Amino acid sequence: MRGRPSPIALLAVWPLALAACSDAAADDADGGPAGAAEVGAAGEDASVGADAAGDICNVATHIVDLPGPFDCDAAPETLTIAGPNKRYEIFKYEASHPLATEALAFPCAVSDGIGFEMPAVPTQACSRAGVRPWHSINWNDAKAACEQWGDGWRLCSLEELARACEGPTGTRYTWGATWEDGQCNLLDAYRDDGTNRTSEAPTGAFEGCMSAEGVADANGNLWEWVSDRDSTDPRRHKYIGAGWKIIAQRHDKSEQTCRTETLVPGISGETYSSGYVGFRCCRDE
After folding, report:
1. Parent domain of 90
2. What are phi and psi of 255, to 5 degrees?
3. Would you tell me how many other CB atoms lie within 10 Å of the CB of residue 187?
4. DSSP for residue 230
5. Phi, psi (5° rounding) for residue 179?
6. Are residues 141 and 38 located together in one domain of the fold?
7. How far, in Å, CA of 36 to CA of 50, rounded?
């Protein structure tokens, strides 16, 4: 699409903006200008200056101050699934933002704690290996990111995502019928090399977390929004597949399956976002 800033051009401005944030945070610690706030997991120094020149991590709105729209550099990597009732195409990897890197899902991203969201501007959902998947996105924006491609792309349904995770034989976990430690990023399995904190992993990082048909991370890493609405309240939506972070006290290994789902009041609304929840896109063949 024409007239959109390229991811490469925007990548060039991040270090300058984030350096300004760091300088402002240091000033505040020394009794200088106010406006810095600590975000993220407990003890994590992710301070950013809200008033810093060129600051993109806006602590007042918790929205990243970057202009859109954003397009992927290439077409998404996909696979075709032959389901019991139809054939459909699905993202091979969890959806990622066009500005995703191996270290961050998007500029200012925080995996755990009070984080940021990307602005609600037209943005294509990407599917590629080796980058952090797109979390901290609400159901409405996830749906829009899939549909931004056109050509029938949409948010996956529960059955589509579960079938892709289970494979043609319907295994309980994406790797097989019984639990095996370390196959997927479940129960805090992944630790970031830089901080040693648990978080989402780059897409495809767990080689064993591949379905029989080659779908990566459909079990674990991020929980994934699905298109299905709650039959009793259409404003609420499910996310499934379990994830790196336990939600709703699901601590048992038997609850980390392809079909594990969450539909909890307060954390299932269409405007809810979390560092633990992402999405994936599908379309009919």
Report:
1. 67-285
2. -100, 10
3. 21
4. P
5. -65, 140
6. no
7. 6
Per residue in 85-114, pLDDT (tens digit) is 899 999 999 999 999 999 999 999 988 877
CA distance 222 to 225: 9
**DSSP tally for the chain: helices H, then strands E:** 3, 12
Give the DSSP H/E element, type plus range, for residue 140: helix 139-147
What residues does 240 pair with on adjacent strands?
A: 224, 261
Instruction: List residues bridging with 2 in a β-sheet.
Output: none
Which of 45, 64, 83 is at the close of a domain? 64
Q: Is residue 2 part of a domain?
A: no
Query: Can you tell me the distance from the alpha carbon of 273 to that of 140, in angstroms, rounded to the nearest whole number?
Result: 10
Same domain, 156 and 56: no
Query: Average pLDDT of the chain?
Result: 81
Overall number of domains in the chain: 2
Phi then psi for 140, rounded to 5 degrees? -60, -45
State both tokens at 253.
């290994």
The whole-angstrom separation of Cα 112 and Cα 249 is 16
Residues 257 and 231 in one domain: yes
- Joined tokens for residue 86: 């139809």
Alpha helices in 148-218 (DSSP H): 158-166
Percent of the chain with pLDDT over 70: 79
Contact present, 257 and 280 (Cβ < 8 Å): no
Tokens read off for 43: 């003890």
Indicate whether 193 belongs to any domain: yes
Length of the chain, please?
285
Take residue 50 and report the two structure tokens written for it: 């809200």
Using the 8-state DSSP alphabet, how is residue 256 labeled? -
pLDDT tens-digit readout, 240-272: 888 898 775 556 788 899 998 887 766 778 888
